[in-house]
What does this fold into?
Amino acid sequence: MYSFNYHIPKNIDEATTLFEKSNEPKYLAGGMTLVASMKQRLTAPSDLIDLSKMDTLKSIVVEGKNLKIGALTTHNSISKSKDIKSTISGLCDLSNGIGDQSVRNFGTIGGSIANADPAADWPAAILALKSQIETNMRIINGEEFFKGMFETILDEKEIITQISFEIPSYFTYVKFPNPASRYAIVGIGLSVYDKIARVSVTGASHTPFRASEIESALSKNFKIDSIPLNSVSSENLNNDIHASAEYRSHLIDVLTKDAVRTYTQ
Amino acid sequence: MENKTIKININGKDFEENINSNLLLIDFIREKIKLTGSHIGCDTSQCGSCMVLYNDICLKSCSVLAIQMDGAKITTIEGISDGDNLHPMQESFRECHGLQCGFCTPGMIISAIALIKEKPTPSEKDIREHLEGNLCRCTGYENIVKSISAGAEKMKG
It folds into this structure.
């Protein structure tokens, strides 16, 4: 790993000022991806701005019909939160399936979505649920957040402060994990708001997306049999050593059925 | 500031060292403090041989920078026994043959202690799920799981 200047800003203003002053800076949240990438010299920031000490960005609150999670809340804090268990319990299961104990102890929800790994789990929740990403500059609709592989709508110096989810009548996340990394080969997020289904897919393509054909079929008739066969064509899906595009397309069908089954059980 | 003086408490002892920003916690522990019980297996955050306790939670020390740990309290495998008296979890690993070559064992034991602090009576499923981040290439895990169950009972005293 190349060396770099290390900073611990006290607040967001100080963090953005440091960012502007530095040559090639990067913000550090939990560091579960960034430090590993720096070790491999895939990235070499001139300055590392460590946000992880900002305790104000670690809160979990329920406000009316919304669940609000601070960007620096760790996966393990989320999986153990009573407020989340009682509002959107599927998010506890999702976060408890990320990586391993060590990753969940340090990795954060904000860091995960800012990194926008195409096989990460949180993006499925951002798209399946009605969500808003709050930053130091604006509020972004969850559906507009992901732009491509490791690409988001965020400006370089922008910092996610909070993620807000509208509490649905149902949410679940089902994934077929890579047995080594636990990243999703395919992951399906399913939510129901007023009998309208929302279905998101992660791991299958270069960026997470919503499966509109499945959504409309399920919104008409919320049954396993109503899910169309090969609903997402393999044409634009990932084809790699872990799974072929055709297999991923098949997994989308199978996992969506599994997700619907958890609702009817 | 590519260099910084950090204070870390390791196994109850305070250390103050001037370090470079790119030093990993595992290298700090092994090279600076000369505690070589925590091992470097894969060096890619997968195998868990470098597992240490950060307060009471487990952390792969190859996956964080030492500079991030300024002010932290770390426990390594060297810090869990009471002099010559092994920790109950160490005893259980010995009694249940929870190791063969022993390379992964420090990480396994640290990981097990973190689990017991959270769940004093873990089920076999809890143990296997918790060990997701610890790899062993010898035992096939059966005796490790037995060791942790037995260790959990012993830790109740």
In short: The mean pLDDT of chain B is 96. Chain B is about 30% helix and 15% strand. The domain at 88-155 of chain B is CATH 1.10.150.120 (DNA polymerase; domain 1). Helices of chain B lie at 25-32, 88-95, 105-118, 124-130, 142-155.
